[in-house]
Structure formats: C-alpha cells, structure tokens
Known about the structure:
Strand order of the largest sheet: 1-2-3
Distance between the termini: 64 Å
Bound molecules: iron/sulfur cluster
Radius of gyration: 27 Å
Shape: extended
Strand content: 5-15%
CATH superfamily of the largest domain: ADC-like domains
Largest sheet: 3 strands, antiparallel
CATH architecture of the largest domain: Single Sheet
CATH class of the largest domain: Mainly Beta
Number of domains: 3
Low-confidence stretches: 1-5, 17-38
Amino acid sequence: MSQATLTRRTFVQSAAVAGAAMFMGSALGGCLGQSDKPTPAGPSTPVLDMYPSVCHGCIQACPCKVYVSDGVAIKIEGHPDAPTSLGSLCLKGSNQIHTCYSPRRVLYPLKRTSERGAANATWERVSWDEAIELAATKIAEAIEKYGTYSFFASVGGGGAYSFMQAMTMPMALGSPTVFEPGCAQCYLPRFTEAAYMYGGADQSIADAAVLECFKGLAPLEEAKGVTQDTKVLVLWAAQPSVSQTSQSGRGMAELRARGCKTIVVDPNFSPDATKATIHLPVRPGSDAALVLSWYRVILDEKLYDEEFTKYFTNMPFLINPDTKLPWLATEVFGDDAQTTPADTPVYVCVDENTG
Ligand code: SF4
C-alpha cells in the first residue's frame, strides 16, 4: 500500500478491523452482561448491580463478579462457578478496580513535547483526530519508504488489553511483522512441540486451558457426576501455585486437600516444592538422566498402562536405528502398505505373537 492509498480513512478502517478482532478475542474470554439478580440491598447499603465478567489482569482470564453502584465499580470478587479458581482471584485481580480508576491511567492520547529520551519528558493532551492523523501519517511514511513489513507491532502477553489490536493492526495493512515475546518464546514453542511430539494439544499446566488434572473440582462439575481422580501429580519445573495463583494455585490446594500426592522436580525450593510429597531438587541439566531412569524402571517393572500405551501412544512402533524415527510401513513393505490416506502414515509395530 502506498502513501497515496493509505489515507486517514483507510487507517481508521484498518483500526476498525483490528478493533473487531480484539472484540472477538475479548468475547471468547467473557462478557460484561448485567445479571438479572442484583445483590439485595440492606437498609443502609447501596444498591449494587452485579455484572459477571472476567479479570484481564493476565492471560488466565479468571471469571469474576463486578459490583457496581451508581455506575461505579466498587468491588470485584471471583466467580464461584469458575471451573478451577472456584471463586478465587489473585491479589492483582482483586485490585483491578485500582487500575480502572487510577489517576495515572492513560485515558486520552498524549503527544511528547520534549526531546526523545529526555530525562523529564513532557507531554500534551491531543485530540483523537490529531492522534489518528499523526499515526496514519507516520505509518504511511514508513510504508512508503521501506515497504509494508516496516510496520512493526510489539505487544505484551495475551493478558494485555490491547493484545489483539496491536497484533492485528499491521496485518490489516499488509504486514505480518508482529512480535509478542511471551507467545513467541513460551506458549507457541510448547504448543507446536506438543503437536509434533504426540499429536495433541498443549498440555502445559502453565495454561488455563489445561485443566484435566483439576477436573471434577468445581461444584458444577461434581453435580454432573464428573469425578476428581488425580492421585499423583508430577510438577516438572513448574510452579502453578505461584504463576497461576487463582486458578492452578487454587486447584493445587484443592488437590492436596483431597489427598493427591505431588512429586516436584525443581532445583528451587519453590512454594510447590515445600508442599510436595517428594521434592527432587535435581542438578540443573540432569533432567534428561532423571526422566530416562524413570522410563527404565517403568518399562522394566511393567508399571505402565498397557492398553493405553498400545492404543494411544507410539510405544509399540519400531524405530529405525539410522533415522531414530518410527519405521514407516512403506519403507519396510513398499508402497502397497500405505492403506490409509496419504496424510496418515502407517507405522510398523511389534507383533505380539512373533515378538
Ligand atoms: S490470575 Fe489474577 S490477574 Fe490473572 S486473570 Fe486471574 S485474577 Fe486476574
């Protein structure tokens, strides 16, 4: 897109596209809808409207209730129907009202009036029209001079309020150049590796989406007959009680209270390590030796679930010693061995009868 075609109008349209994407993202996390059951008021208490909402203090997006009096939010508390947090919020979440009404919150566009990098930078308030005009002009100049890829956006973690706006704005103008360190260095690698390693979705306890070990904790789930049957949990270099206080932290406390044993592999004496049934403070770099020794014992003593490993893992596959990858049936028996669609490889397994 040339400078001539990037007008203020197209810039605003692009912003609208980005804004719509952001709205969709927000809608997935929760919505601010008025409850049909406002909190009853006592003789001297204000009438409170309760809005089910979601804390956006970080990527966990904990469900919460916001109580409003005369249009002012006066209290936030966790939503008891939340599947893992069960009504908890961390300190940051509980204090989101201070963020909302902070006198230091930026509520309108500011333009720097001092030199860039000045020790005591000064700013002046400008109108939205002026801010949009200035941004559109600068972006258009950069694209005209260096191409669309020069429009670069960087944003913090997925909990950032402007996450989708900042990520989608360059894309709307034809640039894929976005940078999100938390996503690029943490979430996406493990998400991608999970698919490659065992064909499944991300299974990190660091993600709110991974709730298998906590299933059955919420009263709503219990009412549906979902049972909580996590007996032993291995936390390998993870500190859910600290990094996800309200959700996994709460979940861990519930599991421990129900007798779940935990094995924590961590050189640090972390909060989860202090409560572990077994704490293995491995020397950094020796994790691989530890896990291989576990495999050895599990295999030698047949401690694995045979049916599960047979049908849901690649354990029965024969490995090509040269490539260290499972043998493809076509490599051993020829093209006729491909009896499934081409994108579903057929592997060679151990024959129980012949060994
Ligand atoms: S963990 Fe805390 S800050 Fe993050 S969404 Fe939940 S309550 Fe908010």
